[in-house]
């Protein structure tokens, strides 16, 4: 639990001419992004009080109190929205925030270093850990399942993997 702020969404740009915005939620229950308001920029320099208006394809239309024109909304395109960790629900023992996994060492069951987690990818069928090999730019996609990753030790900063044969 290293980062105080966790990215919960992003602004996709303006929607219409009245300062409404397109919002993409990264929350497991997408509508929950509204309950974490006020949301901040990555550096915390700006706060946004977000209210969802309606659902649209791949996200929501939202109003932000601090934005009243199309030009202001357009200027925020690509801005990531962060909530503080204490605004978010605590997770069950077998669930993790992606930000807590990125950077962890990956070792096999024998203790051999396989690499570090570069990103966590979610393509709908299940999460994949992109593991960057030590001393290389090469990456390997490791399924984030109980079989392939039996142990996640956030306190020690590592996961123990039992990857499918031939993956590494």
Task: Describe how the helices and strands are arranged.
Elements: E1 5-15, E2 20-25, E3 39-40, E4 47-48, E5 50-56, E6 59-64, H1 70-75, E7 80-84, H2 98-101, E8 105-108, E9 113-122, E10 127-132, E11 139-143, E12 151-153, E13 158-161
Parallel strand pairs: 8-13
Antiparallel strand pairs: 1-2, 1-7, 2-6, 3-4, 5-6, 8-9, 9-10, 10-11, 12-13
Sequence of secondary-structure elements: EEEEEEHEHEEEEEE
Backbone CA Rg: 19 Å
CATH topology of the largest domain: Elongation Factor Tu (Ef-tu), domain 3
Q: What overall form do the CA principal axes indicate? A: elongated
User: Beta-sheet strand percentage?
Assistant: 35-45%
Q: So, the CATH homologous superfamily of the largest domain?
A: RimM
CATH 2nd-level architecture of the largest domain: Beta Barrel
Average pLDDT reading: 91
* Amount of helix: under 10%
Number of strands: 13
The biggest beta sheet reads: 6 strands, mixed
Termini Cα gap: 28 Å
Q: Helical region count?
A: 2
Question: Within the largest sheet, what's the order of strands?
Answer: 11-10-9-8-13-12
- What's the number of domains? 2
- CATH top level label of the largest domain: Mainly Beta
């Amino acid at each position: 639990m290293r980062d105080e702020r966790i990215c919960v969404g992003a602004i996709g740009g303006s929607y219409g001419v009245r300062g409404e915005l397109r919002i993409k939620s990264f929350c497991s229950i997408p509508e929950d992004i509204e309950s974490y308001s006020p949301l901040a920029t990555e550096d915390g320099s700006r706060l946004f009080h977000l209210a969802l208006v309606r659902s649209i394809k791949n996200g929501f239309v939202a109003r932000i109190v601090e934005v009243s024109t199309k030009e202001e909304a357009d200027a925020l395109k690509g801005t990531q929205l962060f909530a503080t960790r204490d605004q978010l629900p605590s997770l069950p023992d077998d669930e993790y925030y992606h930000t807590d996994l990125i950077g962890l060492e990956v070792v096999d069951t024998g203790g051999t270093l396989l690499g570090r987690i570069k990103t966590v990818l979610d393509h709908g069928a299940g999460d994949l850990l992109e593991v960057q090999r030590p001393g290389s730019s090469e990456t390997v996609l490791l399924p984030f399942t109980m079989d392939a990753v039996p142990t996640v030790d956030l306190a020690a900063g590592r996961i123990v993997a039992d990857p499918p044969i031939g993956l590494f």
